[in-house]
Amino acid sequence: MGLSTHVLDTMHGCPAAGMSVKLYTTTLDGSQATLVKAMILNADGRNPDGLLYDHDSLKVGTYRLVFDVAAYFRSLGVSLPEPNFLNLVSLDFGIAHADEHYHVPLLVSPWSYSTYRGS
Fold first, then answer.
1. Is residue 47 pLDDT above 90, yes or no?
2. Does the predicted model carry a pTM greater than 0.85?
3. What is the pLDDT of residue 1?
């Protein structure tokens, strides 16, 4: 149970090791955000500390994950146009059932991304 994330680099076919990610709590309309945690993803493309929120800490509410996509691809030597197509990818999502596990994966390239609620 809790909240987790995982990022896969679809350009290179590997986890997005070294990507910077920030987690925020947000107001329901998303107009205000409070930083909860900042992390650099490990070799598996995950938070090195494990869950972003454990079962006891996860609350019903709205959240935002911000992935620094452009900096990640630049760090790998990928030539990106200026301005680049994707810079920061922000995912706003809601937790309706704090007793369930919410996994928020990101599959990303310099030109596209997708996400879903995983388990």
1. yes
2. yes
3. 82
Q: Record the tokens describing residue 100, joined without a space.
A: 């369930």
Q: How far apart are the first and last CA of the chain?
A: 9
CB count, 10 Å around CB of 90? 13
User: For residue 5, with 0-12 CB atoms within 10 Å meaning exposed, 13-18 middle and 19 or more buried, which class applies?
Assistant: buried
Which H helix or E strand runs over 27? none
Here the tokens at position 63 are 């959240």
Q: Would you tell me how many other CB atoms lie within 10 Å of the CB of residue 34? A: 10
- Contact status, residue 97 vs residue 60, Cβ threshold 8 Å: yes
The predicted pLDDT at position 30 comes to 80
DSSP lists the bridge partners of residue 24 as 35, 64
Q: Would strands 14-15 and 20-26 be described as parallel, antiparallel, or unpaired?
A: unpaired
Instruction: Name the helix (H) or strand (E) containing 68.
Output: strand 61-68
Does the CA dihedral 6-33-55-93 come out positive or negative? Answer: negative
> Which domains, ranges and CATH numbers included, belong to the chain?
2-115 (2.60.40.180)
